[in-house]
## 1
Amino acid sequence: MLETIDVNAELSKKDYQKLVESIDVRLGECQRAIREAGIPVIIVFEGWEAAGKGTAIGRLLQHLDPRGYKVHLIKPANEEELLRPPMWRFWNCLPSDGAMGIFEGSWYRHVLQDRVKKLLGKREWESAYERARTFERQLTDDGAVILKFWLHITQQEQAKRFKKLEKDPALAWKVKKEDWRQHKAYAKYLRAVEDMLRETSTANAPWTVVPTHCDRYASAQIAQTLLAAMSAALDAHGKAKAAPPPQPVAQAKRMDSVLDRVDLSRTVPRAEYERLMPKLQLELRRLEHLIYIKRIPVVIMYEGWDAAGKGGNIKRLTHELDRRGVEVISIAAPEGEEKRHHYLWRFWRHVPKAGHITIFDRSWYGRVLVERVEGFAAPAEWQRAYREINEFEAELTSFGAVLVKFWVHLSGEEQLKRFELRQEIPYKQWKLTEEDWRNREKWQDYYLAVSDMIEKTSTLHAPWTIIEGNDKRHARLKAIRTVNAAVANALKKR
């Protein structure tokens, strides 16, 4: 593959200047249009050491408004980053809608290097490439533009550049012993690079190989590729905006649902509850210390009907925990920067580091619940979210996280009873809003959405636990028992 690249391709200074004059104006126009359209652009620069990544980025940025981009220099993961799933740090670097994120190095660099050094086996680097494809597809499905450049030079040219840098006292530091070791293993890296390009060049996020023996030629190719990609994205955006709005997908009534089989008559006597709950809380505290030692992250997620008792359940769950290792995230409608990113972005930001616990009061499932029912997400968006959510949860659990998902279920009659009680008790009135009453009017729509959610996203690695919520004591005991069992099972495997 790379052997077919014309590394001797050149562009004269005169032709380059003429081309730059045209591209400069057009790139500026496209960048402004991209910002107005709210299209995020992600540009990845990978390549051989001394291939000129810094030069290529510098020349490209000369055409762009610096207020509209941010450059990320990707180094080996630090201690904080190693305590979270591999893609966590890249989700945190993503540009908002209308902005550009430029990456020198990326989610590919460590995989390539560790593969050649045999620090990763075939199954591991294949999994890493699958993560990369998934990450990129999720972003482009949401409207992002992704460009990936591999800057290519021959082994002979690389040696020539290393020696030139070493002769200059001001630049010699750039060439390290590791660079020469990689240079000697050029053939091994070449095979791995070609494999990477084949495995991860997709229609939505293709690789462009750029020969950089002539930096003018390289700069022109990069600028023209970016211009073409942004123009195509703007054209597609214009057509989508002009098209009639998508019609709601008719949802057939289910003949049966997992919710229909829930036994809401289950109760626990007060005396039994008061005897068991303190013991279970202390056991969870003991387990919390063990997961810290073993560096196991725990994610606990609550969904459920309004007034189902999620808040009280979380309060009992955290009662004896060391709060330095626990964070409770209350999820409301996205605001500000959250609305200008992929919907999973705000949840990736709160992924706990290994050894800590994060509890979500509502979650990423809003995409297939409230956003689906209320029409905040288009049918295509919430329908593909089932796959995206399963992929997100698979990344968490493959990293070793314990993931516990609760749907707190209760009957319509019990919900009405709790609503009315909240109206009567002054210190509980704040809990009841007009939105709660509106949601209740759409009970059947939510019932269908919940049924689909549980069916499509209950997996072996991330199963749903339905909590019978009509009796709060039963619900609280079942939740803490489930968490304790899940954490204890993970500890047994370590």
## 2
Amino acid sequence: MTEERPLFRLRPMTVRILQLLLAVLVVFSALEIWDPTILGKIFSLVDFHVFHLAGELTLRGDLAEAYVFESFHAYQKAQTGADDFMPWTYPPHYNLVMAALALMPVGLSYLVFITVTLGLFLWVIKRLAGVHMLPTMIIALPAVAVTIRCGQNGLLIAALIGAFCLMVLKNSDKRGIFLGLMAVKPHLAVAMTLHTVMTLQIRALLWAAAFTAAALGIATWAFGPAIWGAFLGSVRDSSAFLEAGAYPLYRMSSVYAGLRSFGAPSEIAFAAQTASALAGLALVAYVQIKGWEIRRVLGVMVLASTMISPYNYDYDLSMLAVAFALVMPDMVRFAKGREIALIFVASWVASGSGLVASALRDAVSGGPGSAVARIDPVSTGMFGILVLVILVTRLLARAEQGAAARPAAMAAPAE
């Protein structure tokens, strides 16, 4: 049996430099979040500030205020001085984690959160990718960088999805634990749930139900039953915000965001998003019914997860590392050079176009905090996602055909 080879190799010194740059990015972002004046910059509200503020309200016993957009906006402005507003729509049990982080100053809190989640993410990707770790990380690099810069939870979510896949590969019922933990972002767990149901993993579903029920029960005990009404109210308000185009659509990679940013009415954009979600789930069902090799099924499942929700942000695409950790061996064996190049470009467009658009937007408007009116760029991430899904699915179908042809060739009699 020949040793598996990676898509490409880098010199050890180059790898160490990349690792150092990643560490510098984390430290730089921690300083910027803690006190940007140290770096000669002005304050700009990012996602982790909002995480920390929600944790503060949780510690004060005022979590319900975080779910009321007007009161949370007022609190954000009072604490940070920023006019920007980021709503809070995470389920109540997630606030238990935020409360623990809010016990620390915001800079240290960020450093702990990103270091831990990045460590978990890298450990899971290494377990899944093996010798393909480096190309897998490079293909998902923009999403990882975005997540580190804004302090979001994309690395944590990708680690949970990757851990679910690891348990599936081990044929372990414990996959249900990670499916249950995905209740933090349930819209990213729909394809995982479909796969679990289609494979009749009853014990895994029971594990998922038990962990979800425990999380919801603890949150209800900690915050009171009324917190769920406040949470659902924020979800309704968030949907209205999305319909009005009030979110930064250029940071999203969904079909809805793409069409809406190009001026399509919300009704048409939602209809197209529904079609995208159904197509993604149908693709998962198809490859499962056809009996594809399990790593290929899981790769399709993770890619399909990017097609479900209209809220698919660039930091959510850290999960692309999970998908490519699973399918990279087939890319090495079956992909052509131009296909590999196009897959890399599509991945970077999907997860990095929002980062580029943000930089250009700030440059045009005079930077974060500028009084000059900002221009919202269009969302191009959806094009990257659609190209990725098409190219990778075709590649995996070719790999399936190649795997089926080999036994037949071996069984053919010599002439």
## 3
Amino acid sequence: MVLNCKHMWGQISNYIEGDVDPGLREAIEKHLAHCRHCAAVLDSTRNILVLIADDRTFELPVGYSGRLHARLREEIASRE
């Protein structure tokens, strides 16, 4: 199985949670070994989870979620 970035991004949460079958896990790890961009997205996602789990809270800037989703759509479109 060969994954592209779009498929990879759709599986990041499942991968972090260990909720992927062994074949998919192997494909994800192969992709991560060769794609610095997806490896950075994975690291960033893990960092966000650590921050969210922290007892201290902080407010995200207004519009952050919309800008994040727009940026991800741009990245996906540029790789297709």
